[in-house]
Amino acid sequence: MKKPIFRLTTLDFSILGLLMQKPMTGYGIRMMFEKTALASYSSSPGTIYPALSRMKGLGMVEKKKQASSNQELFTITKRGISLLTRWVTQTVTRNDVIRNSEILLLRFAFMDILASKAEKRKFLNSFLDVVNQYIKELEAYHLAESSVMPASGRQAFEHGLELNRATCRWIKNLLNNL
Amino acid sequence: MKKPIFRLTTLDFSILGLLMQKPMTGYGIRMMFEKTALASYSSSPGTIYPALSRMKGLGMVEKKKQASSNQELFTITKRGISLLTRWVTQTVTRNDVIRNSEILLLRFAFMDILASKAEKRKFLNSFLDVVNQYIKELEAYHLAESSVMPASGRQAFEHGLELNRATCRWIKNLLNNL
DNA sequence: TCGCACATGTAACGTGTTACATGATTCA
DNA sequence: TGAATCATGTAACACGTTACATGTGCGA
Predict the structure, then answer these.
(1) What is the Cα–Cα distance from B76 to B56, expressed in whole angstroms?
(2) What pLDDT, in 10s, does the model give residues B133-164?
(3) The model's pTM
């Protein structure tokens, strides 16, 4: 994993994904975060506006005033689209599944216009591989350790297993109907 | 939600939960975070040691050298146990479910020694209420908006719905067998 | 004209991460 | 004796949060 000169956060990509759908004011973006709890970030001004400035500095978004009204809307640039596309279409890693499978779903949600059907399939296939592998490991661990785990711990563990199985079913179902 | 004089983070409680099981060295805690990806925090020294110092300053943990060996182990104090107990047995809120349902499972996992069967039931019941309510809202939204949502967005949304349903099943099953 | 929604910003703060640094112990 | 693991720490940094601050436009 090479280190880029600048780091883009999930917050940045979340905003880019919103701007991909349509240009919005900073306030509009805030309201989207408030309504949809996007990736569980705060919708407060101190979160959104600094992020927008940063992204503007990096040439990922532009501030354009509409000719029709006097509103100032943020628009995603070509550079922004390119970065966002690269982000969503990355191959799914083991770490993604273990530590931020919520973000994987966010990436998928943004794929609508950004990725071809083939790229979606590729994403889902790598996702499925990793999840299946992970489920196997969890099952093996469960088999070996469940008798010595504290009851609540074991039950919470089983919950995690169930969620991964649900994700697995979701992927398979999607791959069949895509 | 009143503001306490000091703030305890999920990281703090995760560490407390580990120390509840048995006293450990800082290094031991780090290794636990590395193996189990506990609440998806980094296992790096820069994460664990400053947290331990902070917690020691707040009287939640103690550093005790074992008589038998020359190891220095961190131990949870009575104050720490009290704070941890209060944390895990809090009533489940809507916000918990929407923004950090993973943390709810962590809380449940730690309940083994910290909570009575009745308290576990109370927790699970409030959890179930909130999840059921949330699922209803998601279903209503889906019914109303699915036709105008972009395909990937709708599918990701459906994934979220499925996870919540799986959680709901898990809770119900547990309540029957507790 | 009162209040609310729209709209934008910033300063202080704490926390987690990365990277760097050091030393002891164990074992091959 | 050299490598690997155990063990602890800290400094620089960036990010997200809270709280504060300000102003406009519109409808009741």
Answers:
(1) 9
(2) 999 999 999 999 999 999 999 999 999 999 99
(3) 0.91
Pairing verdict, β B61-65 and B72-76? antiparallel
| Closest partner CB to A112 (pick from B100, B106, B152) | B152
Smallest CA–CA distance, residue A28 to chain B, in Å, is 18
Residue ranges of chain B whose CB lies within 8 Å of a chain A CB: 21, 37, 40, 98-100, 105-106, 108-113, 120, 150-153, 155-160, 162-163, 165-167, 169-170, 174
Residue (of B88, B151, B140) closest to B116 by Cα position: B88
User: CB-based burial of residue A104 (10 Å sphere; 0-12 exposed, 13-18 middle, 19+ buried)?
Assistant: buried
Contacts of A169 in chain B (CB under 8 A): 162
pLDDT digits (tens, 9 = 90+) for A11-63: 999 999 999 999 999 999 999 999 887 878 999 999 999 999 999 999 999 99
Size of interface A-B (CB pairs under 8 A): 76
